[in-house]
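Loading example: each entry is read as two labelled lines plus one structure line.
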Amino acid sequence: MSRYEVNVLLYRLKKDAAFRGRFRADAQGALAGAELTAEERDAFVRWDARRLNELGGSLHLLISIPGLGGH
Amino acid sequence: MGQLVYAAAMSHVLYPDYYGKNVGPHGRKMVEELIAVVQEMGRELRATRPDALVVIADDHLNVFSFDAIPAMCVRIGRSVERMVQADAIEFDQALDGLPQRYPLHEDLANRILEVGMEEGFDFAASWSAPLDHAFLSPVGTLCGDTPAPPLVPFWVNCFVAPQPTARRCYAAGRHIARVIGEGPWRVAAIATGGLSHFPELSLARVGTSAPSFDRRLVALMEAGDHEALCALTVKELDLTGSHELLNWMVLMGAVGPLRARVRFFGEMGRIDLAAMEWETA
């Protein structure tokens, strides 16, 4: 499990509006270059916040991504 | 000789709309009661006419990224910006309408940083980090329409493992007290955050707090039992959602072996809210 990669992507989704827009339009395409395990990639694509949290994703990132966060 | 003229700690989401939405009328009412208490504390703080206000709080991955998370960080420079975020989450909507820029107490910040490095505290320094709700929601509530004293923002990593220990945070506070004592300034200090919420930083557990643990913390602070507080482990703080007590530990180090006075304690369910103060004079 790469806690770093998961959180780098979450941080980018929070801070980079253009990347966030690409992710929301085509999650698979936006994540194409990311070094994620299949399980991590699947959790991102399905936007399963609880699973991403279990995989090491920071709670404070998961709840604060505009349009995707919330709790 | 300098003096710590005011010391207090308080929860830092002082925003009724957030609790109204996420908890309901009970949550809104409780935080409104806390806000009234913090406003009164602010009048007492301002009456001490401090030259500087040290604010000890944590980042919520708003400023620091996973590229680097300082265990503790001193904000230096001449002024600091309020964080502005497009589509800010509810926590940070509490900052709307507050001043865009705040003066810093550059000399005191530099002394805390530089003397700290000489004495073995490997503090990080930031010249550009803005301040989020953890700093400015309490500062805005304490100061109201009056200008804030020059600030010394001090970050503690409360959320990204491995965090500093409670004992190390307390030691950093002792260091800050020594710097204040050796300087010429009248200094106020606050710590923010807590009490328990977001246990284990688990999304599945959002919405629960640990009231029995919080009652124990409050009792220890009232008794001035700082040794018991220093002995708390990061694991205990994580399990109960008491991560932000680390901010309070720095403040308690700064005030030394004094008993706290409870100004507010409320068990909301989602979080336990509190405001405490220490008689420093």
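Chain B has one domain: 3-278.
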